[in-house]
Specification:
Largest sheet: 5 strands, mixed
CATH architecture of the domain at 526-669: 2-Layer Sandwich
CATH class of the domain at 526-669: Alpha Beta
Number of helices: 25
Distance between the termini: 81 Å
CATH topology of the domain at 526-669: Heat Shock Protein 90
Shape: elongated
Radius of gyration: 51 Å
Amino acid sequence: MKKSLFVILLFFKLFNSLYAQSSTDSIERFIRNAGTDTTRIRLYKELGDFYVKVEPQQALRFSKEGIALSRSKAELQLLPDLYFNLGYAFNSLGDNDSAIIYLRKSLDIAEGRKNVPMQIKSLNLAGSIFTTRAVYKEAAEALFKALGLAEASGDASQAAVVNSSLSVLFYNQRNFEKAISYGEKGLQILKVRGDAKSLGTSYLNVGLIYADKGDDRKAKEYYENALDLFKKIDAKLHIATTYGNLSLLGSIDINEKIAYLLAAQKIWDEVAPDHPNAVGNTGNLGTAYFTATTDSNFSKLKAGDGIVKDKDFLLKKSEELLTIACEKCRQLEFDRDLHYFTGELAKVEEAKGNYKLANQYLNEYITLNDSIYSQENKNKIAAVEGEREVAIRDKQIELNKISISAQRKIRFALIGGIILLAIIGTLLFRQSRLRRKTNYTLLKLNSELDEANKVKARFFGIISHDLRSPVANLVTFLNLRQEDPGLFSKEQADRHQAVITASASSLLETMEAMLQWSKSQMDNFKPRMRTVVVREVFGHIRNNFPDMHHLKISFQDPDDVSFVTDEDYLRTILHNLTANASKALQQSPGGIIEWRAARKGNEVILSISDNGPGADEEQIDALYNKEAAVNSKNGLGLHLIRDLAKAIGCVIEFSSEKGKGTTFKLVLNG
């Protein structure tokens, strides 16, 4: 859309240079046939963008047409751009009051729609206008607000523009330090992101500040940087302007001054002889020739490039150039420049001895001075200002009518939309709360179910591990009696039968304890903490593991230790560790297992040592690694010890030495 529109606008622009009215009619016909209002408004906006810097009157017309068509919500998004173009065009036409009104409208709408780039543009242009009008407080407020928005949004290009505007503001207040500071900030940004022309212009502006400050060395450095950039892109008008600025430096001698002015004059004569800067350059060159006639400058003057070291020649060239400059100023109505150059021309004629002509120019100089600075002129300006106030009010009334008409048509639609959005928002909020509550309940139930499954697995592990060995011993004894009844003597048989009977009784006691414990654990998943006497726990282990001919078990509790923990968890851990030690010593005659209980500070340490063959870290991997496989023959084994120890906050330490035995330490909070 934008590409095709640009081609159309370019065609109309070229056509307009030959047939202005016909081009305007063609544009109007094209817009009328564009289709929807939205398309036509976008065309008016793009046309305003195109014409605002070249033909402000046309930009005014197209922007107003676009505003009049803006009704729907989709179309309102272009209103800030349309109002900005109106403000820009009025500023170009010199109507600053109207420009401020439309820029404020652009700003208000852009703020409502959170259009930050347009807010920055509107504030920056308004601040520049206030600077021109010497309303410095309002200028500072607008520009600093624009700078804050540009920096917050990360828009470096806009920040560079606003910094340049702030530089101009402080320059007008003769605060050169701050003017240079903000000018340099804009310059640094443009060095990274700006094009050559923008960067060169920034160098030129900062150099002008240094020149007015009296720092000719710094000013010349910046002018020369600008000149290098302008030469690279062959920006002839900018090159000529830079030469003119260099000629005004007080630190250069008369030869450099004339050389710069001649170089600038050559460009102006080729490109734009009627440009305001070209007229000023002609007059300044004439003034330079006259300055060269003074004794101090004349002694330094060098002949060459059309310059003759002769005072009559210099006075003649000065008269010729100043006369040309004055004539062009009269034609173009540049009264301020004419005022200055007639004064210089009067000095030249006086030096030549033409007193009558000098007096004539002097009278013109006085007349212009009175005209420009007289009270009558001030009164005229005040009268015009009053008329402008009336015109502004009339325009404001017209704009208010347009705005009311547009708002009336969208008001009900907006109200209905707000109500509908409120209803939808309420329903979504209620649905979200219900979903969150349901998800929380499901999560809690899943967590409880998972914990219950873990407890169930632990119960089966306990039963498998604690019941397998005694039952296996009983089955083995019965099988031996059946296969070879005479294997044991009556005394041996009675002794084994007594041991098995004791084991069976202990097993029954253990089963009852485990069933009772499992029931309590199903009702309450967490360990039940209460005071446990180690002596009683050791007694339980003694009952389950009586001494045998190849194995002796001892229990050492000199301090009669007691502490708070879950007794069932602790018994199961000790039972499993004792069973593992017993199995390790089955093939070792003279086996010894020793349990010790001791208190160390706030900790209770229970240790079990044996003199068996020892074990390596791979064999006890299940004690520390959750991913280790479960031994189906021996139940959960070390997995069970690990899980139960973790539940009661018990730390297990392991040490072993091949051929000398193994030691486990249980460290619990006392």
